[in-house]
Amino acid sequence: MVENLIIAKNIAEAVSCKVSCKASCKESSAYLAGGTEINRLNGTVNASTLVSIGRIAELDGMSVVDDPRKGSCATASRFLRIGSMCTFQEIVESNDAPQWLKDASRFMASRTKRNMATIGGNVALMRDDSYLYATLLAAGSLLELVDIEGNTMFRCTRKYMNEHESFKDCLIAAVLVPMNAVVASRRYANTAESHAVLTMGAGIVNGELRLAAALKGTGVFLMPHLSELISNGATEDEVLDAAKNHSGVEVKSDMFGGEAYKRYLLGVTAYDLAKKVLSQGGSR
Amino acid sequence: MRVDCIINGRGRSFDVEPSMKLREMLLLNGNLAVRDSDDAEGFCGSDTVLVDGTPVFSNLVLAGEVQGCEIRTPDGLGDPRHLTVVQQAMIDAGIVQSAYNAPAAALLLTWLLENNPNPTKEDIKDALSGIFIRDAGYEHYYLAVKLAQEKMKDGKYSTTIAPSFRPECEYIGKPMSKIDGAQLVTGDKAFVEDYVPSDACHMVVLRSPHASAYIKSIDTSEAEKVEGVISILTAYNTPDTHYMQAGQGNPEPSPHDRRLFNLKVRHVGDRVAAVIAETLEEAKAACKLIKVEYEVLPAVFTVEEAMAPGAPAVHDGIVEYRAGAPADLDEYNKASKDPREGKVIYQFPLGGDIRHNVAASNKGHIGDVEKAFNESDAVVECTYQTSQIQHTPLETHICFAKMEGQRLVVYASTQVPYHVRRIVGWVTGLPENRIHVIKTRVGGGYGSKQDILIEDLTGYAAFVTGKPVLCHNTREEEFIANSTRHPMRVRVKMSGNKDGQITGIFMEVCANTGPYGNHCLTVPMNSCSKTLPLFKVDNMAYDLKVFYTNTPPAGAYQGYGTPKGTYGLMMAMALLAEKLGIDYKDMVLKNHVEEGYMLEILKGLGEGREGAVVPVGSCGLDEAIRKGCDMIEWGKKEVSSDPDWKIGKGFAMIMQGSGLPGLDHAEAIAKLETDGTIILNSGGADLGTGLDTISAKIVAEVLKVPMDRITVVSGDTDSCAFDTGAYASSGTFFSGNASLEACKKLKDMIIKESAYQMGEDEGDLEIRFPGEVYSKKTGKVLSYYELSHTACSGGGHGQMIAHGTYITTASSVPYGAHFAQVAVNVRTGEIKVQKFYALQDAGTPINPEVALCQMYGAVMKSIGHSLYEDMKLDENGVCMNANMTDYGVPMIWEAPEDFKSVLIDVNDAYGPFGAKSISEIACNGAAPAIGIAIHDACGVWLTSWPMTPEKILKALGKI
Ligand SMILES: Cc1cc2nc3c(=O)[nH]c(=O)nc-3n(C[C@H](O)[C@H](O)[C@H](O)COP(=O)(O)OP(=O)(O)OC[C@H]3O[C@@H](n4cnc5c(N)ncnc54)[C@H](O)[C@@H]3O)c2cc1C
Ligand code: FES
């Protein structure tokens, strides 16, 4: 039950609200962006204080920037910096956003929801049916984070995924997607509005094939095993076999699909998307 | 916190709680058209508003966030007397039907056209992608946009809205605005929720967490202490009256197998207790404090489990019969051990055997199927399975009841106001004269509001507490505690010869009625009775059993059991055609009935009585099949440029009924008012399907008066006369015929009274537009105004009031054929419906534009059950997807890219102005048409719905 709603005017204020909630230990708090998860029925976020970040100008807009990190595991030299409060619809309509990101943003089929939901909210949630995370991960995207001390840092989506818990108090200020990246994605859901059983992204990061998936019941993960196999020229049957038997990924049968179906989809989609991105300019 | 904002152009200030949603704030401001269909799930879009010019879901926005914003709501567009171009275009296009979220759709289309005056189809799709339309489908939304554009540009429409029928008629068969369109599209007061006073108490139901359990005790002491609690109802303080919730004729074929509260719960979601409190929050809080001790019992969920030897009995109490009890009943009842089981009271024998979970059974035949199977060139046999489907009306079930003196007044969103009155009378013990049921506009029914699912308890609660009581189902309750489509297993055996003649058909139907027997015989019977009469086959037999189980309840759903029987029969026929090496189309054409064919099969389809053999009446089946085959280019193989996608075509012939001859009944009262206008009191229940408009058109046509001088009052049990209600496709045929009868009688009265007043012979008089009597002999004219005024002011014989009743033994059957072209991805299993053509003979479509939208809406629902919708229960009977997103209703992106509804012009001998029913039948064709098309595309037969990618991949051997 929401007891406090604070409308933050800038990042510093937003972060300090979060700090004071944390200090008081009594209240749970969350940043409120588009509200499509926080305010919906059976939403997964429970907080008594909401810090609305909807009016912070620094979190809006898109611009092209250089790689903000000094050299380490560079994925590209130029990035599109997308303010975390950018909505899915703003991305779809943007002249700057790459087509692969527009396509992935359209996975959110409801226009009205796209008008509200933000990229920052979607990344922060990192759900097992995430619209965007697998694609952003496959593209080698970066996150601009502000911790509760107010420090800004840049982390790749892989690190954010692997250490999700440790970043949970951070404000996502922006998502940085590499310019000129070769990326493709696919989503499988019962209807366009249903939660996806699988959303997969494929990209070429630092010259290497990168496959990432958000799989219902499993979560978001990278698939280095399949990426390597495909990069080494495996046939479709070999890829399907590998997906079927790969014990590195725990796959559960649930109402979204049986284990065999999910593993098959992982294999066939990995093969198809890899073929697509590799044919578009990546190398094995 | 303080919020200053602008709402529909006017500055407003509010003090809001941090948790308050924008929708709540708007309701406080009186913007009632900002509705909610899914408890803030963010799916249906009924709550759409514009914030600073952008469409958002107001349930997902906190009120505190709109400080300084400009908000537009649907009720800010135009009022019923000043419609905007978009609102008028929506009505004219026929899409304002049950219309619960039509105002939200109007807002979205307005926004679209303001920002993009020339939108493409994709733009319109995009704009509507956040709104769930269940009644009319999405197809005529494109038309509405086109009409609005034309009106804005040229001041008039140039596009033909729908075809016109019966040139000799002025109103019948012509597209014209639905008479309640303005009220609905503007979001004016229309639905139950709009009539609830702010001091109404709220009722919340505590529901069973177990699929089967005895209640050992209920402790309400802590709950009673919660402030505001008025009463808590349980099995211990409510009447021991057994009844059932199906709104059908009386005595109805459903067993009386439940009480308001039972001491045995029979499904997850079954009623345990109900708290009536001053506020919703108090009622919810008290519910949580009720302590219930259960003795959990084993449960059965499928017909296979229910029929297994030694299966636990869902009902194991005393069985009684109101008529026709078997001789060994006392012996049978000795097996009942626990009084908490209650009773099952059959009104007459239904072939039930509750100890073995059989709620009802029936069988019948003509000819000798076994002989036919033995002597034919080929025999096929296959079993088809269908899943549990929810109607998902945009307006969830809602009822408001209050005492007015000694009378109980019930505001209900129902298809059957008179059955509501009867059943509320049973549970309260009140006679019918002390119950007044007011049917408001219904925000979607589709059969689910044919059952008296909450009115019984709400009426009882208001009666015992003396308080005004509101009960409004959550969306989850709609799934777990309402009625659903019966899951069925249909085994079909069919034989035929090389010349394409089908020689024998056998159907074994096992239906799952869930814990209670609402419609347990009638709905499953339709899987045979509305399918077998399509065939000109001499040997046909069926064997039907309906089982009690512990799933959420089943009941009536548009089409009743017919979609399932049609799925089995058409798929089996396609299989047989394949086996015989014959084109499926040729086989269909050789075996379908035509006008005049004597339907011997009806003998065995009388639900216990011997049915009358009658010939096929008006029948557009052949034309529908041939025309549809031409449209879809039957026989031409389509090839996709992407080799993974395989394309196939399929179709199914379909039929339904137009009410139940010999059972249904309708009445109407037509009154000439003192100023010459006319009020028609129709017992019929308009669910948004345009029945009131049909009645008005009948008045206008017969009495030659303009539509604006006619008012139709319907579904009010005080002012209207008895009607069995809107189900079994009876509305147009029965209620329409009653209106016609009343009008004809009123016309006779008008002529008689005019002859008296004018001093002329009746034979010399005729009535003519715009409501006057003309003497062919003298040329004298008497307006209805003068006539009625004189009649009611001492100079005549008093007000002219005519009463029309309609009953019949005639059966007017609508026919049709539905065609699908699908693409199947053989690598991923994905299925796309590329084309869907629905061709139907509805007799004279009185409201053609509304009829087309009824067809689009019904087809969308049936595409839903064919491909996506499925209530999934876990091993304990808990529905895992009791929400819109996970359940999987189709929305605009699932609509076929090329989608056409076509009305086959046939004039029926019995329907009013030749009309037959239109919408139920439209639910029957999609599953077999798509199933056959999938086979044509990729060679696999999918024998269970929903037909999913996973099933495709399994059938293709990929997983
Ligand atoms: C019907 C429906 C279906 C949905 N289905 C899906 C689905 O299939 N897949 C899916 O991924 N999502 C789904 N969602 C959830 C949601 O719409 C999206 O994930 C959306 O992108 C969330 O963004 P938001 O801005 O609305 O987040 P909010 O609801 O505002 O916030 C969500 C979470 O993210 C945090 N957060 C938001 N912004 C930031 C930030 N800048 N920095 C740090 N933390 C932040 C919040 O504190 C909160 O914990 C669905 C929602 C609805 C209503
Ligand atoms: S949240 Fe939109 S209709 Fe419920």
Record the SSE blueprint:
The complex is a heterodimer of chains A (284) and B (959).
Chain A: E1 4-7, H1 11-24, E2 29-32, E3 49-52, E4 62-66, E5 78-83, H2 88-93, H3 99-105, H4 111-116, H5 119-125, H6 133-139, E6 142-146, E7 152-156, H7 157-162, E8 171-178, E9 183-189, E10 196-205, E11 208-215, E12 219-222, H8 224-231, H9 236-245, H10 259-279
Parallel strand pairs in A: 1-3, 2-3
Antiparallel strand pairs in A: 4-5, 5-8, 6-7, 6-8, 9-10, 10-11, 11-12
Helix pairs in contact in A: 8-9, 8-10, 9-10
Chain B: E1 2-7, E2 10-15, H1 22-28, E3 48-51, E4 54-57, E5 70-72, H2 85-93, H3 102-115, H4 121-128, H5 139-154, H6 181-185, E6 201-207, E7 213-219, H7 221-224, E8 229-234, E9 264-265, E10 271-277, H8 280-288, E11 291-296, H9 303-307, E12 318-321, H10 329-333, E13 343-346, E14 358-366, H11 369-375, E15 378-386, E16 398-404, E17 407-412, H12 417-428, E18 435-439, H13 455-465, E19 469-472, H14 475-480, E20 488-496, E21 502-514, H15 522-529, E22 539-548, H16 562-580, H17 584-591, H18 621-632, E23 645-655, E24 666-672, E25 678-682, H19 691-703, E26 710-714, H20 731-758, E27 765-768, E28 772-775, E29 781-783, H21 784-791, E30 801-806, E31 815-825, E32 831-841, H22 848-867, H23 884-887, E33 898-904, H24 926-938, H25 949-955
Parallel strand pairs in B: 1-5, 6-19, 12-13, 17-18, 21-22, 25-26, 32-33
Antiparallel strand pairs in B: 1-2, 3-4, 3-5, 6-10, 7-9, 7-11, 8-10, 14-22, 15-20, 16-17, 16-19, 20-21, 23-31, 24-25, 24-30, 27-28, 28-29, 31-32
Helix pairs in contact in B: 2-5, 3-4, 12-13, 15-16, 16-24, 19-20, 20-21, 22-24
The complex binds flavin-adenine dinucleotide (FAD) and FE2/S2 (inorganic) cluster.
FE2/S2 (inorganic) cluster is lined by residues 36-38, 40-42, 44-47, 57, 59 of chain B.
Describe this structure in words.
The complex is a heterodimer of chains A (284) and B (959). With 284 residues, chain A is of the alpha+beta class. Chain A folds into 3 domains: 49 residues; 122 residues, Uridine Diphospho-n-acetylenolpyruvylglucosamine Reductase, domain 3; 100 residues, CO dehydrogenase flavoprotein, C-terminal domain (Enolase-like, domain 1), CATH 3.30.390.50. Chain A has a 5-stranded antiparallel sheet with strand order 4-5-8-6-7. A 4-stranded antiparallel sheet of chain A has the order 9-10-11-12, with helices on both faces. In chain A, a hairpin with a 2-residue loop joins strand 10 and strand 11. In chain A, helix 9 packs across helix 10. Chain A is globular, with a radius of gyration of 19 Å. Chain A starts with a strand and ends in a 5-residue tail after the last helix. In chain A, 55% of the residues are buried. Chain B has 959 residues and is an alpha+beta fold. Among the domains of chain B are: 75 residues, Roll (Ubiquitin-like (UB roll)); 90 residues, [2Fe-2S]-binding domain (DNA polymerase, domain 1, Orthogonal Bundle); 188 residues, Aldehyde oxidase/xanthine dehydrogenase, molybdopterin binding domain (Aldehyde Oxidoreductase, domain 4, 2-Layer Sandwich); 141 residues, Aldehyde oxidase/xanthine dehydrogenase, molybdopterin binding domain (Aldehyde Oxidoreductase, domain 4), CATH 3.30.365.10. In chain B, strands 8-10-6-19-16-17-18 form a 7-stranded mixed sheet. Chain B has a 5-stranded mixed sheet with strand order 2-1-5-3-4, sandwiched between helices. Chain B has a 5-stranded mixed sheet with strand order 14-22-21-20-15, with helices on both faces. In chain B, helix 15 packs parallel to helix 16 and helix 22 crosses helix 24. The longest helix of chain B has 28 residues. Chain B is globular. Classes of the chains: A alpha+beta (284), B alpha+beta (959). At the A-B interface, strand 1, helix 4 and helix 10 of A face strand 4, helix 4, helix 23 and helix 25 of B. The complex binds flavin-adenine dinucleotide and FE2/S2 (inorganic) cluster. FE2/S2 (inorganic) cluster binds next to loops of chain B.
